[in-house]
Amino acid sequence: MVVRKKKTTRSKQLGERTHGHGDTKNRRGAGNRGGRGKAGSHKHKFSKYYTTFGIKVRQNPSIKKGKALNITQLSENLPAWMKQGKVTQENGGLWVVDGRKVGVYKILGAGEAPKDLFIRHIKVSEKARQKIEEADGEVEETFNAAGGETKVNDPPAGERDE
Length: 162
What we know:
Layout (H helix, E strand, L loop, with lengths): L8 H4 L54 E4 H14 L2 E3 L5 E4 H4 L1 E5 L8 E4 L2 E2 L1 H9 L3 E2 L23
Parallel strand pairs: 1-4, 3-5, 4-6, 5-7
Antiparallel strand pairs: 2-3
């Protein structure tokens, strides 16, 4: 019985000058394919599907934090927020600023703190916390160090009674 071997591509090209790749100039560099990557994407490699030619595309952050205000900006906005009903006055004359209603994510420490503020659902920098507490205000702890919200009244895991 005779075993017939299949011819390989290489053996088929023996005796051929260019081995199936066209002219000898076509093997020299990236010129035959029109450049490397997206080169020529607005000329000879144009496609209606390349919509971002010449534009640097940035990914949007997945977490939208909101505004960060200094204490001076907070005190300037207080009268307007009071008229809109976003800031309320509770027992003891404390002005309650709720970050969810006002749309503020963080309070920074530049400026003088107004009297009798109660801050809720807002991150507060250390300098701002000191100024608010010196002006007889309070800050409710609702954020942990990682940036997520935590419940205020829950004890830590090791101190729970079971």
